[in-house]
Amino acid sequence: MGRLVRLGTASMMNDPGGEFIRVEGLDLQKYAQRPPIAKALCDYLIYYLRNPRKALELASEATQVADYKDWWWKARLGKCYFQLGLYREAEKQFKSANRDEAMIATHLELCKVYLRLDQPNSALDEYGRAGEKFVGDIHILLALARTYDQLNAMMRGVQFYKRVLSFDSVNAEAIACLASHHFYTDQPEVALRFYRRLLQNGVATSELWNNLGLCCFYAGQYDLTLSCFERALMLAEDNNMADIWYNVGQMAIGVGDLGLAYQAFKIGMCIDADHAESYNNLGVLELRKGNVEQAQAHFRTAMRLGPHLFEPAFNGGLLSFKLGDFQDSFELANKAMEAYPEHIESKELIKQLKQHFSTL
């Protein structure tokens, strides 16, 4: 008898180096009768094994055992339906769970369903109802701010980020988002204060030091700019080092050191051969040196690597216009307009080209 192992126990045994649980051998009806083990097993299936189908079977059995009155199982059913792409079914389960027991996590999951269904207004309404029940909860306030950011309602998002800081003064996400907002609204001095606050809170990453360097540069504190970029490069990894060297090149152009800028863009290209922005700026510097063919090659490469950028297409079009290749210039200017329809210089170039064509 010592060699005989029951089927239920065998399914929970693990081989060295193998699966911890053999899901196919589980008797889900038996485990649904034991809620503590069933809940742990359900979370294991969802979060570790990434098997929402089996988790859905277990949650369905356990919900029936609980006589459809346990909000926790309804919330897990909603999560399983969400991962399986059945968003309307997930919405029903989350709503039912909220009727049984209003929980912050369930409200947030329901809003994720609305956002996935491309119904941001419904998500905002649900966030508002959750905010009335759980006043001052930063998770709800942050979710509201993120949703307004996605809707390009930046000022409304900023209001909620400020409310987050009134409840949690060291929240890294709110501080970073407010810093980014002030930087892109031409207030680098204010952004610098927020980024310094992150440093005081113990955040020390290459991205933070890079942003500090940019803020110092645009705030006119040139003596601190290089020190910040040096710290950023010390902490950088291969996936973000090219961006930092690109910013070093931008800073060098701003202070007039074109030699340093040229070297920085070259290094950025060596680290990341697909860095379109470095190719574009290097093309501009090559053009200043009189290397027209090399500049054209860099612009073409930048357009191929970064079709979302308008600068390489405009630079290439302007160069072709000066060289007398008006047809190529017209095509590149239109490509720049596709990437950025409001670009004034591209509009002016196309206008000049059309006037030239009309005289032919």
What this model shows, in words?
This protein is mainly alpha-helical and 360 residues long. Helices cover 76% and strands 0% of the residues. The longest helix is centred in the C-terminal third of the chain and has 16 residues, at 344-359. Mean pLDDT is 92; it is low at 1-12. It has helices at residues 7-12, 28-32, 35-48, 52-65, 71-83, 87-100, 104-116, 120-133, 138-150, 154-167, 172-184, 188-200, 206-218, 222-235, 241-255, 258-271, 276-288, 292-305, 311-323, 326-339, 344-359. It contains 21 helices and no strands.
Question: Topology, pairings included?
Answer:
Blueprint lengths: L6 H6 L15 H5 L2 H14 L3 H14 L5 H13 L3 H14 L3 H13 L3 H14 L4 H13 L3 H14 L4 H13 L3 H13 L5 H13 L3 H14 L5 H15 L2 H14 L4 H13 L3 H14 L5 H13 L2 H14 L4 H16 L1
Helix pairs in contact: 3-4, 4-5, 5-6, 5-7, 6-7, 7-8, 8-9, 9-10, 10-11, 11-12, 12-13, 13-14, 14-15, 15-16, 16-17, 17-18, 18-19, 19-20, 19-21, 20-21
Q: What are the main properties of this structure?
A:
360 residues; mainly alpha
Content of β-strand: under 5%
Number of helices: 21
| Major sheet | none
Which structural class do the helices and strands define?
A: mainly alpha
* Quantity of strands, as a count: 0
In one word, what is the shape? elongated
Which radius of gyration do the C-alpha atoms yield?
A: 28 Å
Helix proportion:
over 70%
Low-confidence stretches: 1-12
Written as H for each helix and E for each strand, in order along the chain, the element string is HHHHHHHHHHHHHHHHHHHHH
What is the mean pLDDT? 92
Distance N to C terminus: 100 Å
